[in-house]
């Protein structure tokens, strides 16, 4: 981390570094860099359009939730598993329920590994003593 120097920040930005990288260099937020450059009359580049896959800050190294939801729904329907009845408590709902991977591996979509659970049963097993999971500094489960 260096002492913030707006001229040096502009130089780095003009060399192609992103606002975030310039901010990291000086230990300030990208918003601070953006504001200071705009005050100098500098036009800010548009953010790169490629936010897919590993370029996305939310990337977790796998398949999207939408794909998993479609796949598990299809597997349940093909195997005659009702999507609106909890397999734990047996209660029937007017809407489709969560599909849970028993082994927590979202790529294992065998019917033996998928269970349809209501929110109450899913949360009691997921957050209860059964799993005792800890969140990291980003709020994600480790």
Keywords:
6% strand; 35% helix; two-stranded antiparallel ribbon; 142 residues; 5 helices; mainly alpha
Secondary-structure content class: mainly alpha
Main sheet attributes: strand count, strand direction, barrel closure: 2 strands, antiparallel
Give the spatial strand order of the biggest sheet: 1-2
Report the strand count: 2
Task: Specify the number of helices.
Answer: 5
- Poorly predicted parts: none
Quick recap:
It contains 5 helices and 2 strands. It has 142 residues and is mainly α. Helix 2 crosses helix 3.
Describe this structure in words.
The protein is mainly alpha-helical and 142 residues long. Among the domains are: 34 residues; 62 residues, no CATH class. The protein is built from five helices and two strands; from the N terminus they run H-H-H-H-E-E-H. A two-stranded antiparallel ribbon has the order 1-2. Helix 2 packs across helix 3. The two termini are 29 Å apart. The mean pLDDT is 83.
Layout of helices and strands:
Blueprint: H1 6-14, H2 19-26, H3 30-39, H4 65-78, E1 98-101, E2 114-117, H5 119-126
Antiparallel strand pairs: 1-2
Helix pairs in contact: 2-3
């Amino acid at each position: 981390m260096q002492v913030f120097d707006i001229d040096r920040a502009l130089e780095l930005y003009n060399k192609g570094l992103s606002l975030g990288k310039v901010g990291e260099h000086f230990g300030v937020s990208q918003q601070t860099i953006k504001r200071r450059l705009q005050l100098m009359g500098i036009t800010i580049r548009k953010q790169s359009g490629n936010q897919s896959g590993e370029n996305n800050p939310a990337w977790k190294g796998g398949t999207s939730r939408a794909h998993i939801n479609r796949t598990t729904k299809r597997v349940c329907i093909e195997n005659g598993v009702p999507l609106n009845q909890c397999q734990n408590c047996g209660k029937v709902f007017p809407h489709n329920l969560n599909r849970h991977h028993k082994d927590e591996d979202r790529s294992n979509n065998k019917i033996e590994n998928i269970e349809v659970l209501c929110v109450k049963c899913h949360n009691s097993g997921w957050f209860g003593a059964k799993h005792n999971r800890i969140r990291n500094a980003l709020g994600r489960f480790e």
